[in-house]
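Cross-check.
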Amino acid sequence: MELAFQIAKCVAWAPGVETEQEWCLWQAEKHDFSSDISLPALKAIPAMQRRRLSPFAKVSLHCALEASDHRQGDLPCVFSSRHGDLNRTTKLIENVAAKEDLSPTQFGLSVHNAVSGLYSIYTKNQAPISAIASGKTSFMAGLVDSVVKLHVNQLDHILYVYTDLSVPDCYSGYLDTNESIGIGLLIQASAFQGEGFKLSSATTNHAVLMGIQSLDFLNFYYGDAISWNTPVNKQTWTLTKN
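Predicted model, tokenized:
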């Protein structure tokens, strides 16, 4: 079975690579990521609220707000991340180790669906929103969930947001990759057969993820290849574009 869909808008953020032109240059290996993280300005959010946001939340909300555009009021959403706001969570763990009191606010903002909740508050969005984590394959798991919901619920549009930032130094030794990336996709139903993207899967016993799924997707999206294969658990998913 193939699931057809279109990407009405793609917003991607990485250190030093933010605009569509910069991502095209990155895909052509003519532009690299920066070693310095310059966070999105988020001018649409009031300054008092903006100051409380962590870097993870700022990147996530930037991608969500820019990709959702004028459809923010009633837009089903899927948010996905491998690690979530791990920098905030690590500080809470350090507080526990030091036998210090925990901040209820900081704890509430550390959970995996915190940013999706913030998005719904800022935009007054009352549509269904879910949060996903699936290890190394969190990006594709979220994309598959978004496209399936688009078809099963017969939606016109759904917003998909994926974010991961570099983990704290105490965890870096346990990871083979440690990139900072944010992606927002406004996904819509295909108006015409054979237009846009198609998603299909096949069962396999040896599906191994070799790269970084989110960056591999952007390389495919901005490049000339017509298909891209990537695993989620024991399934290999194929994304093709016309």
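The mean pLDDT is 91. Strands lie at 3-13, 77-80, 129-132, 157-164, 181-188, 197-203, 227-232, 235-241. Passed to J.P. for a second look.
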